[in-house]
Structures are given as structure tokens and as C-alpha cells.
Specification:
single chain; 240 residues; alpha/beta; Rossmann fold; six-stranded mixed beta sheet; four-stranded antiparallel beta sheet; globular
């Protein structure tokens, strides 16, 4: 289980996160949503180790990892798919994935090639294995980025704006890919401005407002709350 407990982040004398707590269980999809400036990106960065916390703990399978640098958190099982493109444009798809596999010293070359072949097949990108990153479509790029994240063998993956910059058809494809993660018993923490499509994916969601957790619950419970509608969703919002 990935647990954030009473997480606080202060910047320039102001609380950006104020006693935020959340839980992500294996094989579950958890949304972290809220208005612009609510603290979602700050929370992601603090969990990943990109930003120092002022208070609180980050527990991974019961171990406090809040003092560990980002690369050690990644080795312990926290993966990240950023909003910005994270692939190497000058490398082809196979090389992009292999560049991550080569950081895993416990694998020999045969094992790396086997995992590469498996990821190419599972994410349906074998046909573009030798296409350079610079020529990929938005949906193809997202699949390759996800393959790179999986190449690190994570237990949990943080997805930052996975629907950004993709067309409606690709949104459905990405939703299938996120569910594919849970089939591997990987826990997912996701934030995106496409609230409806994100909530459709989630088992549970947290709504941030001004750095605090305003509400949490199932998507249906979230949508039913008047305070969430008032500051974030709008009165006419529906999941359908």
C-alpha cells in the first residue's frame, strides 16, 4: 500500500499542502482532483521526492520513504508518467524502452530482451518498434511512455495528465491502458483536467481545494456532494 499521511509543503511562507492524507492500494485506481492551484502537482512532486515536504510521511508498504531521493523511491516501486513527453525523440521505440531496462542491474541481457518483447506485445507497439520517438502520434507516444514506466517494474504508478494532448479516440485507449495496469495489480494515482473521464476510471477519488482534502469517496459519492459541485464540478455535472 502507498500511503500519504498528514503531508505538508510550505513554499515562501505559504502552505501549498496542508495535512493531506491519501491511500492507494494495489490494483486500484485513485484520482487526485481539484481546481487549478489546489495542490495536485505539488502532492505528486512530494510523493515522488521532487519537492521536499515540510511535514508528514510517505509510506510504501509500511516503510517511510519520505527521506529517500527520487531514484531510490523509483527503485522501491514508485513509477511516474509525467504530463510532458518523457521519451527520447531521437531513439526508436525499442531503444526508448531498453534505455530503462538497462538501468536494472539485476537483469542480464537475455532477461531485458524478453521483457522488451513482452512490453511491445502487451502495449501493442511491436509494429512501431523501430519508429523514432519524433514521429509517434499522441496515443502511440503515451503507450511508449507507459511501456517505459512498466520497464522499471513499479508497484505503483503516478499518472500526471495522461489525457493531455490526445484526441477522443486516444482517451479511450489510454483508459484501457490504465485498467491494464490494475490487471497487473499495480496501484494507480491519477490526476487530469478531464474530470469526467478520470472519474469514470477511478475506484476512489480525493478532491483537493486550497491545499487540503475537501472530499474523498467513490466517484458517485464525490459527484453527489454539493460543496464539490460548488467549487469544482459545477451544478450540472454528471458522470454519463
Amino acid at each position: 500500500m502507498l500511503e500519504v499521511r498528514d503531508l505538508g509543503v510550505w513554499l515562501e511562507g505559504r502552505a501549498i499542502l496542508d495535512h493531506v492524507s491519501l491511500v492507494v492500494e494495489p490494483g486500484r485506481i485513485v484520482g487526485l482532483l481539484g481546481p487549478n492551484g489546489a495542490g495536485k502537482t505539488t502532492c505528486f512532486r512530494a510523493i515522488l521526492g521532487q519537492l521536499p515536504r515540510t511535514s508528514g510521511v510517505v509510506l510504501l508498504e509500511g516503510e517511510d520513504i519520505a527521506r529517500l531521493p527520487m531514484h531510490r523511491r523509483a527503485r522501491k516501486g514508485i513509477g511516474y508518467l509525467p504530463q510532458e513527453s518523457s521519451i527520447f525523440r531521437g531513439l526508436d521505440v525499442s531503444q526508448n524502452i531498453m534505455s530503462v531496462l538497462e538501468t536494472r542491474s539485476e537483469l542480464n541481457r537475455t532477461a531485458r530482451i524478453a521483457i522488451l518483447d513482452q512490453l511491445l506485445k502487451e502495449l501493442q507497439i511491436a509494429r512501431i518498434a523501430h519508429h523514432r520517438g519524433s514521429v509517434l502520434s499522441g496515443g502511440e507516444r503515451r503507450r511508449v511512455e507507459l511501456a517505459r514506466a512498466l520497464a522499471a517494474d513499479p508497484s505503483y504508478v503516478l499518472l500526471d495528465e495522461p489525457f493531455a494532448g490526445v484526441d477522443p479516440v486516444s482517451v479511450q485507449e489510454i483508459q484501457r491502458l490504465v485498467r491494464f495496469l490494475t490487471e497487473k495489480n499495480i496501484g494507480v494515482l491519477i490526476t487530469d483536467h478531464n474530470v469526467r473521464e478520470t472519474l469514470k476510471l477511478c475506484d476512489h477519488a480525493y478532491i483537493l481545494s486550497r491545499g487540503r482534502v475537501l472530499a474523498e469517496g467513490t466517484p458517485a459519492e464525490i459527484v453527489a456532494r454539493d460543496d464539490v459541485r460548488g467549487i469544482y464540478l459545477g451544478e450540472d455535472f454528471t458522470l454519463s
